[in-house]
Amino acid sequence: MKEIKRFDAFIYSLIIANILAMILESHVFMKQRFGIIFSYFELISIIIFSFEYLYRIYISYKELKWRGVRKYIFSFFGIIDLISILPFYLKQFVLLDGRFFRILRLFRLTRIFKLGRGSKSLQLFIKALSSVKNELYFTLFLSLLTILFSASAIYFLEHEAQPEVFSSITASMWWATVSLATVGYGDVIPITIWGKVFASIISLIGIAVVAIPTGIISASFVEEIHHFRKNR
Q1: Which tens digit of pLDDT belongs to each residue from 136-150?
Q2: 6 and 108: one domain?
Q3: 112 in a domain, yes or no?
Q4: Can you tell me the mean pLDDT for 217-228?
Q5: Residue 142's domain spans which residues?
Q6: CATH code of the domain in which 11 resides
Q7: Exposed, middle or buried, 163 (CB in 10 Å: 0-12/13-18/19+)?
Q8: Quick one: which of 25, 28, 32, 128 could link to 220 by a disulfide (CB 3.0–4.6 Å)?
Q9: Dihedrals phi, psi of 97, to nearest 5 degrees
Q10: Distance between CA atoms of 180 and 200, rounded to whole angstroms?
Q11: In this structure, are 107 and 175 located in the same domain?
Q12: Number of Cβ within a 10 Å radius of residue 23
């Protein structure tokens, strides 16, 4: 048990070091001066994280055979463990565009989620999400349907006045998404009277669209905390 705790502590320290290295590497003068060190550190980290991934598969097999392996691989932390090392191997064995690989490097940030492996709070939150996944699927479907309806409506209301901005329903989806999310960047705005009226209504509807999944998750999380405290 002590060895496992020490191994986990080492992994956590390595994750923090990786995040710090990624931040430092984003500075040009640091990358120019210590670029080779960053590359070697990334390689060593990938080897260790790959070993950790295989080790956890082995432990899962030892406990529950292939059922345990499947359970770990498709679990939240199993997916995080895989995503944190996958971009490196994709670069080595798959010919990818350089820009696409730079985007994949962002997945290195998923390593920070590994810090929550032993966190009861994170486990409760994941359990809370799992218990209301059907409700969240429905709210996602409702959100997508609302975005499609909003994009279609604003297209027909604004296309003649702004053909270059609202050139199609697909192009209008950007406006619909930021409006329903109540972000309102202001880069695309309606200028017709009916377009403004519709935008006002959609902004109010957007508050409800955002509030529904928030309320569902919050209620489920509180319920899981209550059950946890009661059982403890």
Answers
A1: 888 889 888 999 999
A2: yes
A3: yes
A4: 84
A5: 133-231
A6: 1.20.120.350
A7: exposed
A8: 128
A9: -65, 140
A10: 10
A11: no
A12: 10
